Amino acid sequence: MGIKLYGMPMSTNTVRCTAALNEKGLDYEFAVVDLRTGAHKHPDFLALNPFGQIPVLEDGDVVLFESRAINRYIASKYKGTGTDLLPAGSAAVEVWLEVEAQQFAPVISAVVFELLIKPIIGGTTDQAVVEKQAAKLASVLDVYEAHLAKNKYFAGDAFTLADLNHMAYANYLLKTPRADLITSRPHVKAWWDDVSSRPAWKKTAAGIPI
Ligand SMILES: N[C@@H](CCC(=O)N[C@@H](CS)C(=O)NCC(=O)O)C(=O)O
Which residue CA neighbors atom 14 of ligand 1 most closely? Predict the structure, then answer.
């Protein structure tokens, strides 16, 4: 049995994992779990993830949920395949993986949800939420701008999981009227131009419907 990823092509948490699988050059089967039909709350899916959320990764007998844990698993289990996303002993990778999860994702996800996802699912953007969360995101990106002025990638000279885990949300923010949060910061923009030109990301992006 090979690798199977359960998710939706437009889900950021799913895209985080397809980006890792593609960066590793791994073959995998993609199983659509349609949130619009409630497939994620079906007993068959809850048996894979009792929290009823996508993505889920199956690799033989291994079943995992939580996109960042899935990506660590992919990076470790397939260390010798494709790009080494978790260089041994890199404390900087650990720091920036945590920054992505704790500082970046909570605020960028709120901005992306209001400006991009809500209109698609029939809701109305709440501009007050956008302004509040965009201000918080600007503070995080100011730190990124200073860091990336001195480092080509988050953890130094090499592209790692710390970069890759940021990409799904950065990609969506750039499709919103607040793309300026990235494009107005030259080093953050240069980082994006670099990481998004990777062949594996181009393959990933081609599979995202929005
Ligand atoms: N922390 C989880 C979050 C997963 C998550 O929120 N997935 C969304 C889709 S992007 C989902 O399944 N939403 C449906 C729900 O929560 O009921 C991860 O990183 O995998």
Answer: 53
Residue 1 has pLDDT above 80, yes or no: no
pLDDT tens for each residue of 100-143: 999 999 999 999 999 999 999 999 999 999 999 999 999 999 99
> Residue 35 CA: which ligand 1 atom is closest?
14
Distance CA 136, CA 139 (A): 5
- Kindly indicate whether the domain formed by 3-85 is annotated with CATH number 3.40.30.10: yes
Q: Which residue has the tokens 């349609």?
A: 34
Whether this prediction's pTM lies above 0.90 is answered by yes
Please tell me the predicted confidence (pLDDT) of residue 171: 98
H helices then E strands: how many in the chain?
A: 12, 4
**C-alpha 17 – ligand 1 centre gap (Å):** 12
Chain segment 56-75, per-residue pLDDT in tens = 999 999 999 999 999 999 99
Say how far apart CA 161 and CA 54 lie, in whole Å: 20
Q: Give the right CATH number for 91-203 from 1.20.1050.10, 3.40.50.460, 2.60.40.10, 1.10.10.10.
A: 1.20.1050.10
